[in-house]
Amino acid sequence: MPKRLWRQIAIVLVCTFLSGLAVSRGVPVLTAMIAVSVAGLFCVMAMAVLVPLPDLNAPQRNSDASPLPSDIDRHLLEQIPSPLFLLDLRGRVAYSNAAARAMLPRLETGQHYANLFRSPGFLDGVSRIIEGAPAHTVSFAAAYGGVENHIAAEMRRLDATDELGDGPYVLIQLSDQTERMATDRMRTDFIANASHELRTPLASIIGYIETLQGHARDDAEARVHFLNTMSQQASRMQRLVEDLMSLSRIEMNAHTAPTTQCNLTDIVREVSDGIRPLAERRDATLDIDVEFEESAQVTADRDQLGQVFTNLIENALKYGGTGGTVHVSISPEDSRFPGMIGVSIKDNGPGIPRQHLHRLTERFYRVNAKQSKEQGGTGLGLAIVKHILARHAGELDIASVLEEGSTFTVWLPLRKLS
């Protein structure tokens, strides 16, 4: 295969990768196109300098010559993070880069494409490209690595031949869309759930307003009852909107690591003092067994960690049962969380069935929807906790025994004291 063709492939792939990366990072499409065009021009200029022009007086390659790219082109293609490979018109693999071989360990030169993926969509797409169809992308499901994944295969025909007369070739570039599709599905579910959560109290408020405008207009007792209920529903909507906004802010800063040095015991004690009135209203005992420890230093967003412990302690008071006890303490070291400090919030409530534990941090997931709404819950509290801890490189460990209670332990990396 001629060096010119390999240079074309390399330039196309680099530009494709750069444009996709730019758009995924939020760069406007027009700006990304201009930047990538400039990058492509530099690639062309670099290739022209790095790869010498052929010597017309040099002897031609013999029939044993290799169709592989030059060392420069090959090195460039090997660095492309997207899996890609070339097929000849017999449908056999002529070349594959490192990412493709990592994705498909059984991929070998000379292997027929029908042995790569069994998806009818993939097989039909390659067949049409070989027959001369224009470039297109095929999406399909494929099992590799022990799980089912969603793959997009961008296919295009390269109408060029090498010195041996082989060609044209088919270039196939793969991208794993599994995570993106899961994110899209979560976003769709989130919007649907948020809409439902807002629609219910809103419909209730509208119904009461219509009643007050109608036959209950002059009923003072009904008016007081309806207004109180409307106030409760409005407060529920307000809490939901505040949690949605809080979750949005947390996700916006998810990739920005906190930098403030904080003492974890200070944060826990401060939050606990602020929640004592809630414990008194519920006739519950809030036992804070957290003494100041100079060594309990963490790198954190103080306000966000305060929100974590507020949510967890309030949940323990609300769902641990009236008259119960909530115990907050520093956890002993755990080999599962090396180099971390733990804070446990334990209640003596009814406990949580095992099948619910792994889903507790999902948005809008409730073990008992009716009880949650009665307690003023939005279904987002533990989701907020999970996202905050993820930003802090922390963990949330949940343990529960029916009729004995639940323990939520927050683990955070300790800052090493100099």
Give your account of this protein's structure.
- Its main location: membrane.
- The protein is of the alpha+beta class and 418 residues long.
- The chain folds into three domains: 3-176, Beta-Lactamase (2-Layer Sandwich), CATH 3.30.450.20; 182-252, Signal transduction histidine kinase, dimerisation/phosphotransfer (DHp) domain (Helix Hairpins); 256-418, 2-Layer Sandwich (Heat Shock Protein 90).
- The protein has helices at residues 3-24, 29-50, 71-79, 98-103, 120-130, 178-213, 220-252, 264-281, 302-319, 354-357, 369-374, 381-391; strands at 84-88, 93-96, 136-144, 147-158, 169-176, 261-263, 285-289, 297-299, 325-331, 340-347, 395-401, 405-413.
- Strands 2-1-5-4-3 form a five-stranded antiparallel beta sheet, with helices on both faces. A five-stranded mixed beta sheet has the order 7-9-10-12-11, covered by helices on one side.
- A hairpin with a 2-residue loop joins strand 3 (136-144) and strand 4 (147-158).
- The longest helix is centred in the middle third of the chain and has 36 residues, at 178-213.
